[in-house]
Each structure stands twice: as C-alpha cells, then as structure tokens.
Automatic annotation (TrEMBL):
<keyword id="KW-0812">Transmembrane</keyword>
<dbReference type="Pfam" id="PF07690">
    <property type="entry name" value="MFS_1"/>
</dbReference>
<feature type="transmembrane region" description="Helical">
    <location>
        <begin position="464"/>
        <end position="485"/>
    </location>
</feature>
<feature type="transmembrane region" description="Helical">
    <location>
        <begin position="430"/>
        <end position="452"/>
    </location>
</feature>
<keyword id="KW-0813">Transport</keyword>
<feature type="domain" description="Major facilitator superfamily (MFS) profile">
    <location>
        <begin position="72"/>
        <end position="490"/>
    </location>
</feature>
<feature type="compositionally biased region" description="Basic and acidic residues">
    <location>
        <begin position="16"/>
        <end position="33"/>
    </location>
</feature>
<keyword id="KW-0472">Membrane</keyword>
<dbReference type="InterPro" id="IPR020846">
    <property type="entry name" value="MFS_dom"/>
</dbReference>
<feature type="transmembrane region" description="Helical">
    <location>
        <begin position="166"/>
        <end position="190"/>
    </location>
</feature>
<protein>
    <recommendedName>
        <fullName>Major facilitator superfamily (MFS) profile domain-containing protein</fullName>
    </recommendedName>
</protein>
<feature type="transmembrane region" description="Helical">
    <location>
        <begin position="202"/>
        <end position="222"/>
    </location>
</feature>
<feature type="region of interest" description="Disordered">
    <location>
        <begin position="1"/>
        <end position="33"/>
    </location>
</feature>
<feature type="transmembrane region" description="Helical">
    <location>
        <begin position="395"/>
        <end position="418"/>
    </location>
</feature>
<dbReference type="InterPro" id="IPR011701">
    <property type="entry name" value="MFS"/>
</dbReference>
<feature type="transmembrane region" description="Helical">
    <location>
        <begin position="141"/>
        <end position="160"/>
    </location>
</feature>
<feature type="transmembrane region" description="Helical">
    <location>
        <begin position="370"/>
        <end position="389"/>
    </location>
</feature>
Length: 509
C-alpha cells in the first residue's frame, strides 16, 4: 500500500470513495452524548475492519496490547479468585484447625456458609457504582487501588479470633473486589474488535482460574507453617496471600493501562489504528459518559438481563466447585492432601474447552450461542455424574468433576464476550458488564449457601439440583438469544430496523 494511503487510514481518514459509507461521532461537552460530525469518517460498519491497513502492523500492535494488558489483568484476577475462595483450603488444612479456632465446624451450623455469603452482598451492590469510579478515575488508579486495599484486608484476616470478625472482613473484601471483574471485562472490550474478544476473555479468565486452583496447593503449603510464631496454618495462609495481593496491586498502579484514548504506551499513530478498527467494527471507540439516565434506559432493554441470568447460572456451578470441591473429594473417600491435589487438574482441563470454544466463537460466524449451549450441557451432565453416581464409581465421578469444571469455567468468559459483542457504546458496555457480573455474585451466593453440611452424606441434593435447574435455564436462554438475534439481523438486512442505533451493526449469534 502506498505510504500516503496508509497514513490516511492511520489517521482515521478513508479514501474519498469510502467517505459516503462512514459516519462519525464525537462527545458533546455539554451533554456528554455522542454526536455526528460531518465529513470526518471514523466508522465503516459491515466492511473489513483491517481494509487498507498493513496486516503486519496490525498484528504487531495487537501483540503489544496483549502483552501490556492481559498479563496484568490475569495477575489481578488470579489473586482475586484466590482471596475470595481460599476459605476452602483454610478450612481443610491442618485437620480442620480453622473450624476449631473460629467456631465454624458445628454439624448443622451455617457459620461457614455465612462467612462465604457475606462477601457477595457488597460485591453485588457496588458492581454498578464501581463503574462510575472507573470512568472518573481511570482503570489504572481505580483497579490498582482496589487490589492494594483488599490486600490489607487479607492481612487482617490472618489475625481474627472468631468467625464474626472474619465475616466482617469478608464483607469489606467484597466491597473492594466489586471493582475488578466488571472493570476488567469492560477494559478488555474497549481494546479489541468483536472477532478477537472471546479468546482474550477465555485467556484472561481461565488462566486466572487455573492459577487460583493451583494456589490451593500453594495455600496448603503455606498452612504447613502451623504453629510458627504462635499462629495457626490458616492464619499464615491469609497473611502470605495478603502480602502477595498488596504487591500485585502496587504493580497494577504502575503497569496497568487505561482505555485506548489514554494509552501512553502506544504512539499516536498506533492509537489511531486501534480506534479505527474499533470504529469500523462497532462504532464506539469514542468514550461516552455513564449517567443514571442512561442506566435507566439500558435497564429497560431485556437483552442485558438474559445475559445476566445466564451468567448467574454458570457462576453458581463455578463457585460451588471452588468452595466445596475439597469437601466433595473428601466425601468420595480421598484424604485432605489428596483432595487438594486432585482438584487442580480439573481446572487445567478447563483450558481445553475454553480455548477451543473461544477460538471457534471468534472465527466461525453463528457459533457463539452453540458454544454456550455445549458448555451448559457439560455442566448439567458433569454435575449429575459427580453427585448422583454410586460412591464406588470414583473414576466416573471424577470424570464428572472434570466435565462440570470445564463447562463452567469455559462458559464464564464465553457469556461475558457474547454479551460484549452484542451491544455498542462504552457507557452501555460498562452498565452491562456491571449487571452481568453482579448477577454472577448472586450465583456466588447460591453456590456458597446451597451445599449444606447436613446433606454431605447424601450428595448435597439441594445444591446439585439447583445447579442443574439453573443451567437448564441458561441452555434455554441461549436458544432464545440465537433465534432472537437471527430474527433481528434478518429484519435489519431488509431495512426494517437499525440495531443498536447504527446502520450496518449486526448481532453475532
């Protein structure tokens, strides 16, 4: 391509014959709304987003973004998953010293369930308000500070004397953690075109989940310091993980990047190429403010609620395994150490269905819903296998854990990415990310409370049947979304409607 033509594209300017097909938007300083500007093309929906760009240059910039954005988010979310779910390790290690010290081991008691539950109340309540803070202060400062502060909360957990104090700190932990997952999901969606989102979300989430699972073994190792300096093993686990969290938060304050328009690690030309690709893909590279009026408008759209309920269903399964997998394995006849070791391979297996489904969803049109359907079926079948098969069928029950764990951990990023590619405008994306992940917190409440101690010997039927029922609902919702999206695209193709307010935008089913 000629240098002059390349510079036209790098600066967001199309050749003359394309200008009639593009539109442009900017933000009104008075209203904060997107407004059209004549004669300055910034979007080319329905066309190749890389037309006129050097493929090698696009690939280099994408890899540059990958290296700077994804590893830091993985580190942050890994420690987030570890810090919210390491109660299972603390409770199982050192011959249940945790229960003895804090009073959570009563046969029919709900103390442990309460300790796990209270995390999710502020986590859900502050999901949406956290997005206002993210937009105001920027991702680096907002998310980095949140991680650092909850690291100090983790340190405090190492010195509690009863379950009530631990529950209070868990609530504070939920408050700070409410900023991270919706913020990270929003940030990823701001950087990549729709055809690149599923794989990035899968890498971000499943790598974090694997690290979180492996950390159970590491946490068990930390707990072997039992008695050192007069502290129990579970206390050392909280203290060491608290220190690690503070270090990661401090690193995020230095290294984490913000949205493309604020990216100082890219040159001006590189930023323009990133924004041009996003404009051509979905016409929302320009930030628009999130207001309560917009929140009310977006809340009337049924689409975010279908994704949110589907996400709640899958997270119920994922959290249940995070919190109770060591106990499930113990009930299957494995000892404490074996329960820690045998739970980790299932999370490594989750990389396979997650990456394969993510790759297919990004590369092959019409497969996003099919991927969600497949993994929902895996959750249902796997849950039935590990819970309902006879106790003597250990291998088959273990296979069920692998199938359920793979389906659950694959569907989390697949639903997040499907939601992100089905909407446009940064404010709506911020709202939908917060809503979806807030309902994921409701799934966390269900996953942490429906597995009752008194039902351990009969296979936790309440929790198991709830997981199967909810993921059956998610399966039906995926079918509804596929049919709905195909119907809307058909109407848009015939000129009977405009999807998401922009001509040329099509839903990916």
């Amino acid at each position: 391509m000629a240098t002059t033509e390349k510079n036209h594209y790098a600066n967001g300017i199309a050749p003359a014959d394309e200008k009639e097909q593009w539109g442009t938007r900017a933000i009104s300083h008075e209203s904060g709304e997107e407004q059209a500007i004549k004669g300055e093309p910034t979007q080319l929906l329905g066309h190749d987003i890389d037309a006129g760009l050097d493929p090698a240059e696009v690939k280099r910039i994408t890899r540059k973004i990958d290296f700077r954005l994804i590893p830091m988010l993985i580190a942050m979310y890994s420690i987030s998953l570890i810090d919210r779910t390491n109660l299972a390790v603390a409770r199982t290690a050192n011959e249940n010293q945790f229960d003895k010290d804090l009073g959570t081991g009563k046969p029919n008691g709900m103390e442990y369930n309460i300790v796990t539950l209270v995390f999710f109340v502020p986590y859900i309540v502050f999901e949406l308000p956290s997005q206002f803070g993210l937009k105001k202060f920027g991702a680096r400062l907002w998310l980095g500070s949140a991680v650092t502060l909850w690291g100090f909360v983790m340190l405090g957990m190492g010195f509690v004397k009863n379950w009530q104090s631990l529950a209070a700190l868990r609530a504070i932990l939920g408050f700070f953690e409410s900023a991270l997952f919706p913020g990270a999901a929003f940030l990823i969606s701001c950087w990549y075109p729709r055809r690149e989102l599923a794989v990035r979300n899968v890498i971000f989430y499943i790598t974090s989940a694997v690290a979180g699972s492996f950390a159970k073994l590491l946490g068990f190792g930390f707990s072997q310091a039992n008695g050192t300096a007069g502290l129990a093993g579970w206390q050392w686990m909280f203290i060491i993980y608290g220190i690690i969290t503070v270090i990661i938060g401090a690193a995020a304050l230095i290294w984490l990047v913000d949205i493309p328009t604020k990216a100082v690690f890219l040159t001006e030309e590189e930023r323009e190429i990133v924004q041009l690709r996003l404009e051509r893909d979905r016409a929302d590279s320009i930030p628009d403010s999130l207001t309560w009026a917009k929140v009310g408008k977006y809340a009337l759209d049924p689409l975010p609620w279908l994704f949110a309920l589907s996400f709640m269903s899958v997270t119920t399964s994922a959290y249940a395994l995070s919190f109770f997998l060591p106990r499930l394995l113990t009930n299957m006849g494995f000892n404490n150490v074996e329960s820690m070791v045998l739970g980790t391979p299932a999370y490594f297996w989750a990389i396979v269905p997650g990456f394969v489904c993510g790759r297919i969803a990004d590369r092959i049109p019409g497969t996003r819903g099919a991927a969600v359907l497949f993994n929902s079926a895996c959750i249902i079948a796997g849950t039935a296998m590990y819970s309902r098969l006879p106790m003597g069928m250990k291998a088959a029950r273990m296979a069920g854990i692998f199938i359920a764990c793979g389906g659950g951990n694959a569907n989390v990023p697949l639903i997040i990415s499907w939601q992100a590619v089905s909407i446009r405008s940064q404010s709506k994306r911020a709202f939908c990310s917060a809503l979806t992940i807030a309902f994921g917190g409701i799934g966390g409440i269900l996953g942490s409370t429906l597995f009752f101690n008194k039902e351990a010997k009969i296979g936790y039927p309440t929790g198991v049947y709830t997981i199967i029922g909810l993921n059956s609902m998610a399966f039906v919702f995926a079918i509804i979304l596929i049919l709905w999206f195909r119907w809307k695209n058909s109407r848009a193709d015939r000129g009977l409607m405009i999807i998401e307010g922009v001509e040329g935008f099509r839903l990916q089913w």
